[in-house]
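Morning run. Coffee first, then this:
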Amino acid sequence: MDVAALSPVDWLALIQHELLLFASLFFILGALDELAIDGLYALGRVRGRLRTALISRGEVEGRELAGPVAVIVAAWREDDVIGATMRHLLAAWPQQGLRLYVGCYANDPATIAAASRAASGHARARIVIHADHGPTTKADCMNRLYRAIEEDEQREGISFRMVVIHDAEDMVDPAALPLFDAGLARAELMQLPVVPMPQTRSRWVAGHYLDEFAESHAKAMVVRDWLGTGFPSAGVGCAIARGRLAKLDAQSMGQGPFDAASLTEDYELGLKVAEAGGKTAFLRVRGDDGALVATRAYFPHRLESAIRQKSRWVCGIALQGWDRLGWTGNLLDGWMRLRDRRGPLAALVLFTAYLLLMISGALIVLQQLGLARPVPLTPLTETLLIANAFSLAWRAAWRCAFTAREYGMAEGIRAILRIPLSNIIAIMAGRRAVSQYVASLHGGRVRWEKTDHHGHPSIGQRAVA
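And here it is:
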């Protein structure tokens, strides 16, 4: 090929061909990866190993605990939601063995005031003020709460059996705490599913979380638990044995069981427990009312907030996680970590695919105007395109099915329509995460960015201030 003789249109066709091969090959690799999870999930279902357990809520809810339990909630500028969270939690979990610790900062008087009002009259609630000015990281605030737990144990002569981790916007399930209490006999770390709540004001941005969590916490996490590989904690609806936290604290030389330098301490927590030989369990249970025992919450409804949140996840899991956790474990563990860390590559491949769509559209227009010749496809390219088309339809069907099961068929149909938006958010979050990470390699500091919350499921949606 005489490169010098190529016209601009020929160059465009050449670029289209190369992008087509790149995107198609990586999409096929991703499809095979997901197909393997699909196959394992189907096998587990057929063999009866992945069935969702059923409980009688009347027999479980309110059941007394085998010993004291601490619930920790880190709160920075959460005055809009922390009061509703505390009131709902204390009402849903009336057990006297529970004690709620809410971590606030001295330079955040609004959150302190809201938390104090909610704690008023409740001997089971304690407000802990962080000596450092916020925001630090969620892990740093939880370390302060851990020290408060230690202080209470020493002063009162008590010993907590486990610590339950929640965020300031969570709506807990009444059956969750008794399930954790019973599950502690067989696992040191337990994770409940997370169920994002639909928001009529944000069917698309907030809605795409419905689709992702419905599939991930009904399939991928369940398969990981079945295979016995380490799975990441979600940072909410997570219970960990008190003794395991003490061991993690000792390993850190007294710096605290949660790594304050990590953007995704929740992700690392689950893997660290598994690496140390601790048993983990993903608890997927339904009540006799049909509702999943899970943590429910509103997720970001603005595009900017969703991108910021997901860029923190990508940077912490895919980039920091590679540095901090490496590739220890067996082949199955390596496979799961590879899946966890594919965010930046997935963003690049998705960006390539959308760029390819724009170039292909431009070439079609030029062909209609007689300014370009149709470019024949090779048998390999045709095969890749057909395989990718089937893969896209397959993935859309799975997403629709899982979303429809939790939220109804209307949301299941929307799940298919939300796929392009999910991809765009992934692209923008991936680009932002890589930029932050590269800056950190040149002496910069990866900044922890919290997600803003302006509504709570227990009180309905509120207007954004």
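Residues 8-46 form the longest helix (39 residues). Good start to the day.
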